[in-house]
Design a protein that fits this description.
By secondary structure, this protein is an alpha/beta fold. The chain is built from eight helices and eleven strands. The strands form two sheets. Strands 3-2-1-4-5-6-7-8-9 form a nine-stranded mixed sheet. The structure holds 3-hydroxy-5-(hydroxymethyl)-2-methylisonicotinaldehyde (PXL).
Amino acid sequence: MKTALTIAGSDPTGGAGLQADLRTFGAMGVYGLSIPSVLTAQNTEGVSAIKEIPPDFLTAQLDTLLRDLCPDALKTGMLYSPEIVKIIADKFREYSLCNLVLDPVTVSSTGVLLIQEGALDAIKNVLFPLARVITPNIYEASVLTGLTVEDEKGMKEAALKLRGYGVETVIITGGHMETKALDLLFDGKDFLSLENEKLEGEFHGTGCVFSSVITACLAKGYGVHESFIKAKEFVWNAMKTAVSIGRGMKCLNF
Ligand code: PXL
């Protein structure tokens, strides 16, 4: 069986973060491995506290797992601090890992900052050159490039700039755009955009599930374009049937 590793924040609701990633790997028929990088106290209404995993313990988790096995693909979610970013980059090289899908998580769906000062720069400088795919949303693409990303034209400009940071393939998700849900892939040569009508409501964890489907597909040996198409369809179906498990945002159903 193929294996995929997520290094991400814990979200007790299971709607986003490490728990959503694991659930997605399972739904995709891939064996899920997981290392928490940070813990959050949260419910469907929001995040109330964040606790970093001590760097030496993150290192111990990575060394112990990776001495034993090599995942077919891995993804990173909420990394939170520059120290965490650096440890993951070092271990990625030390264990010759491949198929890194990097979701540069910056804010929660409820607007809480999920990253410390300096961590996004570290992600850009240290982890981007190791990534096979990055999956920023339009807000993250704006912060990372300094461009205003509001429409397809802006997404294309940002994708060009982001690829210049050493990433193989850039996928910008546009679910937060005003009128339509358009996602754009750029592989350095061609653009591929996929569009769906926008669904009503506030959804939790769409970016996590999207990048996890891509990770699972890469683990199974699919190419990046096919993985993108599968992820778009998976998230769309899961959003259409999303469930209200608490008082706040809807969680994806799959
Ligand atoms: O959706 C981004 C995200 C990622 N990781 C964790 C989160 C969230 C959003 O709340 O809690 C742990």
